[in-house]
Amino acid sequence: xxxxxxxxxxxxxxxxxxxxxxxxxxxxxxxxxxxxxxxxxxxxxxxxxxxxxxxxxxxxxxxxxxxxxxxxxxxxxxxxxxxxxxxxxxxxxxxxxxxxxxxxxxxxxxxxxxxxxxxxxxxxxxxxxxxxxxxxxxxxxxxxxxxxxxxxxxxxxxxxxxxxxxxxxxxxxxxxxxxxxxxxxxxxxxxxxxxxxxxxxxxxxxxxxxxxxxxxxxxx
Length: 220
Hints:
mainly alpha; Four Helix Bundle (Hemerythrin (Met), subunit A); 7 helices
């Protein structure tokens, strides 16, 4: 029930944010429209990877299966938000700079980050032994997170088309619209976490019961 409430509120906020972004608020620069999707998706992607990092550290500390499952779920959801950020960012780049892909440091490091976390999923599913897969996945996750600071620092480390944070000036209506979009994206993110984790927990319990049944049947 709580999960459904989160989804309903998220959808309502998303509809309201879409109306504000594309009907009510009229930014001076047309490419700002694409930031309403790009910025919230990117921030939620980073949030998902950060919480996944915490879950992996907790797994390495306590070796409890639930933390490994949470880390994996969060990475998959983060990858979904990440691809949305990359696609909307490419559209934004085309509107602002005339090309969908410019090999800008921010674009490139974000793509590398996405590939690294996709590698996390590939590595985990290439290992059959459950505990070994969880340990290697957790260590990989910790190492992959080191790329996130690089994406933030890329604007300062290399010449970039992306403006620095202090160089961005937005009107209050545009800021309010971005915040509302971020709130909507965050609530839908929370709904996806709860739903996916619940489904995977159920699947895990079913697999355990099937294993016990086959073990008893084989022993008999």
